[in-house]
Amino acid sequence: MTLFEELKAAAAQQWADYTGHEFIRRMGRGTLAESAFRNYLIQDYLFLIQFARAHALAAYKAHTVADLDVAGRGLRAALEESELHVRLCSRWGLSRQDLEAAEEHPATVAYTRYVLDTGLRGDLLDIHVALSPCTVGYAEIGARLKLAAEQDPQHPYAEWISEYSAPQFQQLAAEAADTINELGRRFLGTPSANPQRFAALAEIFATATRMESAFWQMALDLGAAEEADRKE
User: How far apart are CA 53 and CA 163, in angstroms?
Assistant: First the structure.
């Protein structure tokens, strides 16, 4: 297996919880509450700002021009991805300024600052491992939900699914995994040759993956609280 495959296998349960979360299952069925989706989009917009900063940190940690190019493409992709959130939130009358003025939820702060702290403390491989569950996981989710959206012309989340199932995003995810494999050859060698370092990388990957699940749950909880308040 490649290094990325080994990291994913070591976090198999966390990965299954993340990519098969109830938020995702409801989205695929088209039954996800609009309030949960809106709260998710707002927080994910704020997340992407920090995600872009993490890619900028990867550029600072870069050793080669190729490393800089990878980091630059990741930063640009995060900013381009945020445009989806601006478009979708405009249906509720929310502007970019409204999104940027929103308060970060503790789950957003915890996840993004964990990624940034991992990058500050570690090397280029550490930060790319911390970044990878988001990119690769969203591509996997998008590909899985694509058929459901295509079969229902009125699917409420078709635009979101289309974004992450699109060839461009699928390629971005493949490149993220390839980057980890390449950096692994440079910084790690093989997991068996450096088991302590692999264990540390596996913990980073598993932690970031758990935080992805917490992010979905945060959106469900915020949506449920909003619906309860509306009924009172």
Answer: 22
Angle between helical axes of 65-89 and 158-165 (0-180°, round to 10): 170
DSSP assignments along 137-153, one per residue: HHHHHHHHHHHHHHH-T
CA gap 173, 204 in Å, rounded? 18
Catalytic residues: 134, 212
Q: Is the C-alpha dihedral spanning 169, 174, 177, 182 positive or negative?
A: negative
Contact 47, 78 (CB under 8 A): no
- pTM > 0.90: yes
Domain boundaries in the chain? 13-223
Instruction: With CA atoms as reference, report the closest residue to 142 among 155, 168, 161.
Output: 161
Q: Does domain 13-223 have CATH number 3.40.50.300?
A: no
The DSSP output letter for 63 is -
Q: Name the percent of the chain lying above pLDDT 90.
A: 88
Can you read off the two tokens belonging to residue 11?
């976090």
* CA distances in angstroms from 13 to 16, 21, 72, 213, listed in the order given: 5, 12, 32, 11
Q: Label residue 103 exposed, middle or buried (CB < 10 Å: 0-12, 13-18, 19+).
A: exposed
pLDDT tens digits for range 34-93: 999 999 999 999 999 999 999 999 999 999 999 999 999 999 999 999 999 999 999 999
Pairwise CA distance, residues 91 & 168, whole Å: 25
CB atoms within 10 A of CB 146: 17
Angle between helices 12-19 and 124-151 (to 10 degrees): 40
